[in-house]
Amino acid sequence: MKSPISFAILAFLFITACSDNTSAPNTAEDTNQNNNDDNNDDVNYDDPSRIPPGSEKYLVRITHLYPFPYGVENNSETIDLRNFGPMNVSLLGWTVRDNDSAVWDMSAIGTLSRDEKALYKCLTPAQMDNKGDTLYLIDNQGDTIQIVAYDTVAQGQYIRP
């Protein structure tokens, strides 16, 4: 019988798979401004006015980016998502794409329940640009739900939209 820890590690590795794709993202008129916070203290997202801007189609949002982690950068970049909406949202077919056509497939996260958070860890070599980038959260219909742009980041710095 496998231990709960072995199962948890296998589940984590399954959820954190990455992929590359060269499809260009759709664009939206709402772009988040750069907010280069240097820590990962949780913001009070219970205040509806603090929900990061984006499409009203879904209230799933990127809440943190970690593009330049401490130590070896490969396999340590993360994207944090949260469902601020009242309904469960399946992330099957959802992606995050950047300006260089790197793609992170969010499908492995599964369904985000109301107010649920998910950490997506990329297991492929570093792809978010440390000198600034724009990421697009795209739903399974190809619609851009959120755009997060940031400037040059310091090592260990978290980005909040």
Describe this structure in words.
The protein has one helix at 4-15; strands spanning 19-20, 60-66, 78-83, 89-90, 95-98, 102-105, 111-112, 117-121, 132-138, 144-151. With 161 residues, it is mostly beta strands. It has a single domain (4-151), classed as Immunoglobulin-like. The strands form three sheets. It has a five-stranded antiparallel β-sheet, with no helix packed on it. The longest helix is centred in the first third of the chain and has 12 residues, at 4-15. It is globular. The model is unreliable at 1-41 (pLDDT under 50).
Task: Throw out a few tags for this protein.
single chain; 161 residues; mainly beta; Immunoglobulin-like; five-stranded antiparallel sheet; three-stranded antiparallel sheet; 1 helix; 29% strand; disordered N terminus
How much strand content do the residues show? 25-35%
Shape: globular
Helix percentage: under 10%
Mean pLDDT: 77
Counted by DSSP, the helix tally is 1
CATH topology: Immunoglobulin-like
Structural class call reads mainly beta
The arrangement of helices and strands along the chain is HEEEEEEEEEE
Most strands sheet: 5 strands, antiparallel
Quickly give the CATH architecture.
Sandwich
Oligomer kind: single chain
Radius of gyration, CA atoms, in whole angstroms: 15 Å
Strand line-up of the largest beta sheet: 1-6-5-9-10
